[in-house]
Amino acid sequence: MLMDEPKDDKAGFVFNPNDSTEETKSPESTDPAASEPLNSEQTSEKDDEPLFNWSAPNSYSSSKSFNWYLVLIVATLALTAAVYFITKDKITTAVILVSGLLVGVYGAKKPKNVSYQLTRDGFAVNGRHYKFGEFRSYTIVSHGNNRSAILTPLKRFVPYMYINFASDMEQEISNSLADVLPQDISHKDTLDNVLRKIGF
Question: What is the pTM assigned to this prediction?
Answer without folding.
Answer: 0.57
